[in-house]
C-alpha cells in the first residue's frame, strides 16, 4: 500500500455506506445495528476485539456542589444500570467496567468487582441521608460523535439519574466545546458538572492513565487526592514490577471506595474492512498504515 487517504466521517450510517460502496476501506466504531448489514454484504466484513477504552462518568470535585458528598456519589453509582447500557444501548459490544485499568496494563485486576450494584431504592436512601430527599440539579456534559454511541449512552445515564430525583441538565457538545468546557472547570465562575469520557491507554502505561484521569493536575481529572498522587510518584520511581502492580491496585481501590469516578463500560473495538484489504485489527484504536495489506 503506497497511499493512505484519511476521510473524516462523523455519522455512523454514512461511514457504513462508504465502506459498502467501496469509497473507503477501513472504518472504526461500527455500531452494533450495522454489523449484520456489513457481514451480509459481499463488499466488506467485520473484525471485533475487546478494546482498551474504558468509559466513566466524572465529577467536578473541586467545585462546591452535592457531588462533593461521598453519599451522593455512591447514590449515583447505585442509580445507573450499567448492564442495561452494555446489553441494550451498545447491544452487547462491550462489558461493564469494574476499574479504570484494562486487563493488559500493570495493576489490572480481573477479579475486581464494582462495589455498587444497580439499586435505585438504595440511591434514593443515600440521597436522603445526604440531605437531598428531593434530589438536586446539576449539569452533565458529554461529547457527541466522538465515541461509540456516546449520545445514546449518556442520554441513558441521564435518564437513570433522573429516575432517582437528580435533575440532570444534559448537554451533548462537539469535542472542541467539550474540551473547552472541561478545561474551564477551574474558573471562578465555573458551575458544577458531570462529564463522560473514555480513556484508551493503548500504550499500556498505568502511570500515564491514572495520572491523566485521577491525579490533582491530570489533564482529564476533575479529582484530587494527595494520597493517590503520592502513590503515583512512588510507582513511577520504582522498577520493581510487583511493587508497581500493588501500588496501582491500591490506587484503583481507593478510587472505587471514594467513587472518584463512576466506571461505566469497556468497549469492543468494532472495525469494518472492505474486501480489498487485510488487517489484523488492534485493540487500542490505532491503525498503522504499514500493517494493512492489499488482498
What does this 3D model show about the protein?
There is one protein chain. The chain is α+β, with helices and mostly antiparallel strands. 35% of the residues lie in helices and 20% in strands. The protein has ten helices and nine strands. It has helices spanning 12-21, 35-39, 70-79, 82-89, 120-129, 150-163, 175-183, 206-214, 226-236, 241-257, and strands at residues 26-27, 44-59, 94-96, 137-143, 167-173, 193-199, 261-274, 277-278, 293-294. The strands form two sheets. Strands 1, 2, 3, 4, 5, 6 and 7 form a seven-stranded mixed beta sheet that branches. The protein has a two-stranded antiparallel sheet with strand order 8-9. α3 (70-79) runs antiparallel to α5 (120-129) and α8 packs parallel to α10 (241-257). It is globular and about 60 Å long. The chain starts with 11 loop residues before the first helix and ends with a strand. The model has no long low-confidence stretch (mean pLDDT 93).
- Specify the helix fraction band: 25-40%
| Contiguous uncertain segments of 5+ residues | none
**CA radius of gyration:** 20 Å
- Count of DSSP-assigned helices: 10
Which secondary-structure class do the elements indicate? alpha+beta
Q: N- to C-terminal separation?
A: 10 Å
Tell me about the largest β-sheet.
7 strands, mixed
How many E strands?
Answer: 9
- Apparent shape: globular
| Overall average residue pLDDT | 93
Order of helices and strands: HEHEHHEHEHEHEHHHEEE
Strand percentage, roughly? 15-25%
Amino acid at each position: 500500500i503506497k497511499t493512505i487517504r484519511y476521510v473524516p466521517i462523523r455519522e455512523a450510517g454514512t461511514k457504513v455506506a462508504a465502506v459498502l460502496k467501496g469509497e473507503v476501506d477501513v472504518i472504526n466504531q461500527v455500531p452494533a445495528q450495522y454489523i449484520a448489514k456489513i457481514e451480509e454484504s459481499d463488499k466488506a466484513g467485520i473484525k471485533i476485539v475487546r478494546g482498551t477504552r474504558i468509559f466513566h462518568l466524572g465529577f467536578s470535585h473541586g467545585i462546591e456542589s452535592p457531588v462533593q458528598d461521598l453519599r451522593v456519589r455512591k447514590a449515583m453509582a447505585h442509580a445507573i444500570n450499567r448492564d442495561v447500557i452494555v446489553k441494550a444501548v451498545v447491544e452487547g459490544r462491550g462489558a461493564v467496567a469494574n476499574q479504570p485499568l484494562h486487563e493488559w496494563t500493570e495493576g489490572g485486576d480481573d477479579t475486581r468487582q464494582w462495589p455498587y450494584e444497580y439499586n435505585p431504592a438504595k440511591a434514593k436512601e443515600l440521597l436522603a441521608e445526604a440531605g437531598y430527599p428531593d434530589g438536586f440539579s446539576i449539569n452533565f456534559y458529554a461529547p457527541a460523535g466522538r465515541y461509540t454511541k456516546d449520545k445514546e449512552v449518556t442520554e441513558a445515564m441521564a435518564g437513570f439519574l433522573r429516575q432517582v430525583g437528580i435533575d440532570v441538565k444534559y448537554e451533548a457538545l462537539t469535542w472542541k466545546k467539550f474540551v473547552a468546557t472541561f478545561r474551564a472547570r477551574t474558573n471562578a465562575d465555573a458551575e458544577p458538572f458531570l462529564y463522560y469520557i473514555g480513556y484508551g491507554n493503548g500504550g499500556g502505561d498505568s502511570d500515564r492513565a491514572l495520572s491523566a484521569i485521577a491525579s490533582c493536575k491530570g489533564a482529564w481529572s476533575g479529582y484530587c487526592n494527595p494520597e493517590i498522587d503520592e502513590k503515583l510518584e512512588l510507582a513511577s520511581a520504582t522498577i520493581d514490577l510487583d511493587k508497581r502492580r500493588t501500588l496501582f491496585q491500591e490506587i484503583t481501590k481507593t478510587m472505587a471506595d471514594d467513587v472518584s469516578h463512576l466506571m461505566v463500560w469497556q468497549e469492543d473495538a468494532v472495525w469494518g474492512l472492505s474486501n480489498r484489504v487485510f488487517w489484523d485489527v488492534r485493540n487500542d484504536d490505532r491503525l498503522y498504515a504499514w500493517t494493512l495489506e492489499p488482498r
